[in-house]
Amino acid sequence: MFEVMVTVNYKGKNYQTNVLAIKGMTCEKIMHIAEDQVVK
Hints:
Helix content is 32%, strand content 45%. By secondary structure, it is of the alpha+beta class.
């Protein structure tokens, strides 16, 4: 596992969130997890 810092644009504002990713996880999956975290 490794930690990835992702910037997500939500409702016109930029948010930074950390995602714990598993080796081999696709970029799209990481972005989806990050967007879910920001919405919550």
